[in-house]
Amino acid sequence: MKDNTDQTPQNRAPEIPVIQRIIAVLWPSFLTSGVATGLFFTVFDPQDLTMLTGHLGVSRMAVYSIGFFMFWLLTSGTCALTCYFQRPCEQVKGRR
Amino acid sequence: MSSNHPATADKTAPDPVDPASEEIYASHKKVYPREVHGIFANLRVLGVVVLLGLYYGVAWLSWDGHQAVLLDLPARKFYIFGLTFWPQDFFYFAWLLVIAALTLFYVTSLAGRLWCGYACPQTVWTEIFLWIERKIEGSRNQQIKRDKGSMTPTKFRIKATKHLVWILFSLYTGFTFVGYFTPIRELTSAAMHFNLGPWETFWIFFYGFATYGNAGWMREQVCIYMCPYARFQSAMFDRDTLVIAYDEQRGEPRGSRKKNIDPRKAGLGDCVDCTLCVQVCPTGIDIRDGLQYQCIGCAACIDVCDEVMDKMGYSKGLIRYTTENTMQGKPAHIIRPRTIIYTLLLLALSLGLVYAISQRTPLQLDVLRDRNSLYRETPQGLVENVYTLKIINMADHTRRFHVTVSGADAGLNDLRLVMSKPVVEVPPGKVISLPVSVQIDPVELRRASSEVVFTLSAEDDPDLTSSRHARFLGPVLSR
Q1: Per residue in B269-327, pLDDT tens?
Q2: Contact B474/B375 with Cβ under 8 angstroms?
Q3: In DSSP terms, which residues pair with B80 in a beta bridge?
Q4: pLDDT 10s digits, B350-371
Q5: Among A17, A58, B69, B283, which lies 20 to 30 A Cα-Cα from B10?
Q6: Which residues contact B3 (CB under 8 A, 6 or more apart)?
Q7: Which residue of B has its CA nearest to A25?
Q8: What is the CB neighbour count within 10 angstroms for residue A9?
Q9: How far is CA B259 from the centre of its chain?
């Protein structure tokens, strides 16, 4: 593991690698979007949704899949915002 | 692996002596777990064979003319052997998940991370991938030596073969996964003729890619960085939880020695410092540093250390399954408040689930009011409301149903039900939409909106009924 004990004022928070931050956004949102998809389609039948929106002929499988990715987009957006705002305010000014 | 992430490689200061390679998650040396033999390794192999056997095998079982376990998403029906579940039964699934989670907590408080070491899909698939890697690339030492050397045609051939086998195995894993959602026999014939549906193809590759990435590349990093359970499992631990521990009192001071000397005379403990326990560790930790959250409890270090102790003529168990209390010479308690509560909760929930499923009504009725009109008047001067009844027959045989309607509010005594036929026949596992209308003499209406109850009863089983309330709208003539 990388040693993160650098105690200079700007560097107090451990630097997290970019790839780790990307996974920290994509992975929890993947889990929650899976749960959301399950709950949503338990209540709503994709066929009713396609009828209501006039997209007849779209298979249930397609609606489930698209629904999953819409949820993932939403949850990963939330995770990304959290990640973005996590940075302490004093570090925002200028580029470090 | 170092050369695979050039984009991130410059982020970390490389160690000039022993270049740490950049992994997906953190600056990190690749772990080459050494092959291990012993009782716990055998248990894990048994776990792998049984669990993967179930995963790849159950998809092919049939039951009563359908796939035994099929979560038929396109048809919104879920077959689990003799039982058929519907989206309406989601409650049971949630209940089952609660039981599964509690079982996991229960086992953790008793025996630590048994799940991680023997049953977690991440462990099970990683074992298979490691096995494939060893068959193709050779032993740990051969792998390390090859990875240090430069790329030669032979090295390329060996690496390419390994990845090819991994990818094929992953794709078959993805195929089996999709086979639980789309009938696997249909899927096979579609795959043979290269006309898989676009979404089936997508999910096979998606799941296959996840398997390849998790079991081939990320491995222990999934446990360390991505697994939520690994983060909170220590909350279930107490001083009586079974953990894998190194007996420091017996082992220290560690050091190498000749086989026949008496270690006590030489001022040494039983640990010969062979570092085999570190070499076999799939997460690359040193168990002698104490209990660490990276330890997945696989017991590989126990197996390998016992082997060394045997060779040295010392007693086994320098590293062993033990509890904090036992280690300190105190009595161990299996029965304690935590375990009693878990046992009672689990018993109650499991019995409750079995009872609830056995008492499940294999019938559902939904009533949708016609949204296009509030009400209409018939030529006879009656007020009429139109509804669509949705009848789901969840039983495994065709049933005939009678529909009746009655007033839930006082005064609605003379409701008349108009249907195309008096008895509704619904085939097994089918949904029938039935338009009906209900009429009443407007003088009986006390309010503009009254409540009526539709009741469905099975002809062959008078106890099997289902009722739904609905609104009845009409003009208010009196007062």
Answers
A1: 899 999 999 999 998 899 999 888 889 999 999 999 999 999 988 999 999 999 988 88
A2: yes
A3: B69, B83
A4: 999 999 988 888 888 889 888 7
A5: B283
A6: none
A7: B226
A8: 6
A9: 48
State the pTM of this model: 0.79
**Contact present, B429 and B393 (Cβ < 8 Å):** yes
Q: Which residue has the tokens 């490389």?
A: B14
Question: A20-67 pLDDT, tens per residue?
Answer: 888 889 999 999 999 999 999 988 888 888 888 887 788 888 999 999
Q: What is the ipTM of this complex?
A: 0.77
What are the distances in angstroms from CA B298 to CA B101, B294, B319, B456?
20, 11, 12, 56
Separation CA B335–CA B348 (nearest Å): 18
Distance, CA of B30 to CA of B11 (rounded, Å): 18
CB B61 within 8 A of CB B68: yes
Angle between helices B140-148 and B121-137 (to 10 degrees): 70
CA-nearest of B228, B241, B226 to B114 is: B241
Look at A17 and B8 and tell me if their CB atoms are within 8 Å.
Answer: yes
Position B223 pLDDT exceeds 60: yes
Q: Is the residue at A5 inside a domain? A: no
Other residues' Cβ atoms within 10 Å of the Cβ of residue B375? 19
- Least CB-CB distance to A19: which of B8, B73, B199? B8
Residue B12 banded pLDDT, cuts 50, 70, 90:
very low
Kindly list the residues of chain A whose beta carbon comes within 8 Å of any beta carbon in chain B: 1-2, 17-20, 23, 27, 31, 38-39, 41-43, 45, 59-62, 64-65
Question: Domain segments of chain B: what residues?
Answer: 238-327, 363-473
Secondary structure (H, E, C), B295-358:
CCCCCHHHHHHHHHHHHHCCCCCCEEEECHHHHCCCCCCCCCHHHHHHHHHHHHHHHHHHHHHH
Which residues in chain B are closer than 8 Å to A41, comparing Cβ atoms?
87
A 10 A CB-CB count for B195 gives 9
CATH of domain B363-473: 2.60.40.10
- Residue of B307, B315, B304 lying closest to B281 (CA atoms): B304
With a cut of 80, say whether residue B396 has pLDDT above it. Answer: no
| Residue from A25, A3, A26, A27 nearest A14 by CA | A3
Mapped onto helix, strand or coil, the DSSP state of residue A62 is helix
Judged by phi (left if over 0) then psi (alpha if -120 to 50, else beta), residue B245 lies in beta
**How many domains is chain A built from?**
1
Residues in chain B: 479
How many angstroms away from the CA of A90 is the closest CA of chain B? 23
H helix runs in B115-196, sequence order: 121-137, 140-148, 153-179, 184-192
CB contact under 8 A, B76 and A64: no
User: φ, ψ for residue B357 (rounded to 5)?
Assistant: -70, -40
Three-state SS for B216-257 is HHHCHHHHHHHCHHHHHHHHHCCCCCCEEEECHHHHCCCCCC
Min Cα distance B232 → chain A (Å) is: 15
φ and ψ at B139, to 5 degrees? -70, 175
Q: Is residue A10 part of a domain?
A: no
Task: Give the CA diameter of chain A.
Answer: 61
Determine the structural domain holding residue A78 and report its residue range: 18-83
